[in-house]
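User: Can you predict the 3D structure for this chain?
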Amino acid sequence: MATDPCDNRSALDFKSSFLTYGDGPFGSRALRSALSSFFNDYFNPVQKVRPEQLLVAGGVTSIIDLVTVGVADEGDGILIGRPLYTSFKNDVSARAGAKMLPVSAEGKDPMSEEMVGQYEKELQKQERQGTKIRAIILSR
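Assistant: Here is the predicted structure, written as structure tokens:
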């Protein structure tokens, strides 16, 4: 396993054609295949990531909007650790009508294992208040 994903750039055998819409709106098959191989090699997930499970889009705003529309109904909640990019609020609410619910990191890395308890505590609090939590956004 590599120590830094940026050290393995050549492992992706990246070609500019990977960024075209030639294979449809989900990104090229070749790019999704290269990404799934990279994710499987670098992160060693419990279940292998398959190319058909990936979607490639132009920017984080587009991705967050697409995912939120796909998983959340109006009024549902999306958890995100603080500090955060303030435009995430618009990304989850503009079309889907979901609520962005910041979770205090209390000095912890929002992507760390230590944060699991923080997210779980907020999830339980929101569910007691009647808000369904549909996703957690992990961001640096």
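The helical segments are 29-43, 60-71, 88-93, 116-128. The two ends are 22 Å apart (CA to CA).
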